[in-house]
């Protein structure tokens, strides 16, 4: 196991009706908040009214900033920073999914910073202070509700870039699985693919030995594989949603990468797809990951055999590790397809003409490699994208 320091400070409120505690939870930090949300799903579902009632009951004032788009945009972040400064707001309540929460994190880092908040995403600066954030999660997927990361798209240049800071963990997150039941099936499937991808990014490591976290990741994957088909229908039960929602948080709250170094190359490649084609993050990952797996599997074939056997119940081929590993990847593709996801670029409507451009934005010829399990340069990223055609 590698040395590690682990701390996740996000306080979790999990279960039915927990959103009604949001006013109380916020008032531990502030009496005036920015209420940040997306394109309106929270109004359609009635969640907005419950949030407002809870804030009013707790005597918390709010200023609203709706309009976060999936693949959240930098321009709205600037707007949020401007509002918080003008209204003297020191806490953000983000109600929605990863996009709303990531936008809130960007605003939180930008308010006290004198420079351009995009500096953080370009690695030119690190935040030394942020304003507070609380979240009410409406889609189990990105894990941003308990992560230190944020991913924002800068419209100019179609650049989608992440950055992380210990300061960005939300102060609290409210997780009521019932809130996710209004999601359209495509978003359900995308969320499942994303949380599985977060587990894969951690699983494929060169750190040794990592038995406990290997088995924890395998357990989380098996839980998702068992419950995801159950949440795809309209008659999905609360218990299956609970398993999926908590899996999504645990997959990305840092506990499963204790003592091991994750990869994250596939995420970086996916950001190029979302940056240019505005595809849902989970949908992009369902295309990138199988191709990445095939490209790197001979780096450590035993790791691919292990996941095939332990997670996908593949019968080991004792004469060919490649056959066993490949059967695991095929099982993953079949699983994602069974949820309605495409596993090829064509299925996302992405043609072959900009692969070279995406590879070049993602990694250099000889510098800026992506990934830790296997370092990927531009030619490798290109081969992975071509493998996904
Ligand atoms: O905008 P509204 O109207 O709310 O609709 C949203 C949006 O269109 C809808 N939705 C959410 N909850 C709903 C609902 N519709 C009906 N009922 C509900 N209960 O779903 C759509 C997608 O929402 P979004 O927030 O974009 O989804 P997700 O949570 O998958 O977030 C994706 C973003 O998170 C980033 C991704 O890159 C992407 O930009 N990630 C953030 C990470 C982090 N900060 O740690 C890690 C991840 O790897 C990921 O990169
Ligand atoms: Zn992700």
Tell me about this structure.
- There is one protein chain.
- The chain is α/β, with parallel strands linked by helices and 389 residues long.
- It has 2 domains: 11-179, Rossmann fold (3-Layer(aba) Sandwich); 185-387, Dehydroquinate synthase-like - alpha domain (Dehydroquinate synthase-like, alpha domain, Up-down Bundle).
- 46% of the residues lie in helices and 11% in strands.
- It contains 15 helices and 8 strands.
- Strands 1-8-5-4-2-3 form a 6-stranded parallel beta sheet, with helices on both faces. It has a two-stranded antiparallel sheet with strand order 6-7.
- Strand 6 and strand 7 (159-164) form a beta hairpin.
- Helix 7 runs parallel beside helix 11 (281-296).
- The model has no long low-confidence stretch (mean pLDDT 97).
- Bound molecules: 5,6-dihydroxy-NADP (NZQ) and zinc ion (ZN).
Distance from N terminus to C terminus (CA atoms, Å) equals 37 Å
Poorly predicted sequence stretches spanning 5 or more consecutive residues: none
Q: Provide the CATH architecture of the largest domain.
A: Up-down Bundle
So how many helices?
A: 15
Classified in CATH, the superfamily of the largest domain is Dehydroquinate synthase-like - alpha domain
H/E series = EHEHHEHEHHEEEEHHHHHHHHH
Let me know the average pLDDT.
Answer: 97
Structural class: alpha/beta
Dominant shape: globular
Largest sheet: 6 strands, parallel
Number of strands: 8
Please report which band the strand proportion falls in: under 5%, 5-15%, 15-25%, 25-35%, 35-45% or over 45%: 5-15%
């Amino acid at each position: 196991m590698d040395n590690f320091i682990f701390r996740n400070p996000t306080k979790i409120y999990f279960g039915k009706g927990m959103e009604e505690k949001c006013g109380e939870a916020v008032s531990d930090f502030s009496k005036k908040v920015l209420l940040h949300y997306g394109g309106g799903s929270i109004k359609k579902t009635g969640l907005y009214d419950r949030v407002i009632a809870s804030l009013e009951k707790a005597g918390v004032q709010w200023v609203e900033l709706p309009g976060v788009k999936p693949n959240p945009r930098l321009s709205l972040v600037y707007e949020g920073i401007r509002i918080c400064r003008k209204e003297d707001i020191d806490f953000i309540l983000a109600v929605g999914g990863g996009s709303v929460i990531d936008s809130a994190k960007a605003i939180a880092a930008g308010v006290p910073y004198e420079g351009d908040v995009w500096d953080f995403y370009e690695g030119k600066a690190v935040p030394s202070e942020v304003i507070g954030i609380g979240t009410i999660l409406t889609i189990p997927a990105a894990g941003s509700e308990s992560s230190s990361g944020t991913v924002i798209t800068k419209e100019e240049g179609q650049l989608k870039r992440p950055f992380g800071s210990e300061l960005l963990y939300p102060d609290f997150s409210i997780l009521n699985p019932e809130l996710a039941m209004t999601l359209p099936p495509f978003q359900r499937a995308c969320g499942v693919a994303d949380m599985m991808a977060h587990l894969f990014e951690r699983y494929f490591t060169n750190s040794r030995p990592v038995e406990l976290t290997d088995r924890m990741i395998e357990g989380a994957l098996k839980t998702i594989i068992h419950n995801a088909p159950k949440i795809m229908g309209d008659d999905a039960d609360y218990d299956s949603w609970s398993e999926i929602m908590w899996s999504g948080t645990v997959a990305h709250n840092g506990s499963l990468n204790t003592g091991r170094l994750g990869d994250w190359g596939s995420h970086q490649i996916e950001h190029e797809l979302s940056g240019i084609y505005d595809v849902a993050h989970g949908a992009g990952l369902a295309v990138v990951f199988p191709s990445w797996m095939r490209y790197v599997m001979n780096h450590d074939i035993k790791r691919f055999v292990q996941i095939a056997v332990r997670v996908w119940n593949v019968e080991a081929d004792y004469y060919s590790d490649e056959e066993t590993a490949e059967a695991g990847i095929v099982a993953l593709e079949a699983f994602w397809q069974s949820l309605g996801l495409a596993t090829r670029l064509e299925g996302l409507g992405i043609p072959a003409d900009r692969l070279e451009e995406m590879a070049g934005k993602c990694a250099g010829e000889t510098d800026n490699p992506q990934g830790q399990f296997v370092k990927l340069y531009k030619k490798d990223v290109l081969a992975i994208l071509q493998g996904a055609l």
